[in-house]
Amino acid sequence: MLYGDSQNILWNLKLLFDVMFLKDGHFKNVQRNDTVRSIDISKLVRDPSSDHYFMGVSGAQVWQSPFQEWVYESGITLNNAPFISGLAEPIRASGIWVNGTFFAQSAGVSGNLFNIDYINGRVIFTGAGLPSNLIVQAEYAYKFYRIDFVDRFSREDIRYHSETELKDNPFSNGNASYPSGGFAIGTIPAIFLECDEDDAEPYELGNRSQIIDQPIICHVYAYSSLERDVAMDLIRTRRDIHMPMVDFNYAPFPLSGLVSTISPVYIPYQTLLENVQYQGNNVISKHFTIESIKGKPQESLGKLERGVVRIETKIWNIAPMGRIGQNPYI
Fold first, then answer.
1. Is 325 a domain residue?
2. Interior CA angle at 69 toward 140 and 217, to 5°?
3. pTM of the model
4. What is the total count of domains within the chain?
5. Neighbouring-strand partners of residue 191
6. Is residue 308 part of a domain?
7. Residue 324 within a domain
8. DSSP 8-state symbol, 49
9. How confident is the model at residue 278 (pLDDT cuts 50, 70, 90)?
């Protein structure tokens, strides 16, 4: 599949937002035996209802955590600001504990191989799996905000989530029912990205290159007006930035496979911005600028608060030469 400007700008903004929210401390580390309302949130439970979602995988076995959107990003350093700089960096899960013994994903458990599904916050065995009476735990960090695309967005599912007492959030309702990767709508708060109507303008006289004007709409959903406003304010701080645009025709995606585990050729977004080479090609082909950002709260939907942010971007067809220095904005 070839990725044009619209898909590349969406992916660049998603990865940028993922990193900037993490650098501002919008995550929670979970260590073994941590509890919320007497629930061990490091414990994974069997989720047989999701086993059959892995078509073609014989004997798939799912162990689910209470939270989705585990942090997979490496190299996250927190911003040097009060109340943030002293926090521990996010834990990137690398394996599981079974009855108190650690097993790395790379080794499996006594010959049983498993993958960490970072998007859905779970572990999936692709072989015989484990007896359900074992104590399985993981140390991980989960994101407070999900950054996703509008094709994952369903207003009907959002309304159902809101009207059933925010069912998958132990912090809000004490419900011990863990989210299912097969049925859950995903984590909220969430920011859904979509392209609006685009336009183009000539770059210069005699040059066939164009500057693409590509507005991006961010739909913000949150449990409270505070969470909504925090997200909208953080997005607004990116006005007037000038960024290299990673071209995913040449760069690898961070997660891969049926179970959204870390790609074997994973390159952190911050490193991609330095215009490294992958398979002999530089990964930056263009630049983009954020010309303006406007946000507006919207009428609440059930128990959820909403807002919309419009980002005006320009995509410049300028291919850089050599290495690009570390960008100061993420």
1. no
2. 145
3. 0.88
4. 1
5. 147, 220
6. yes
7. no
8. G
9. very high
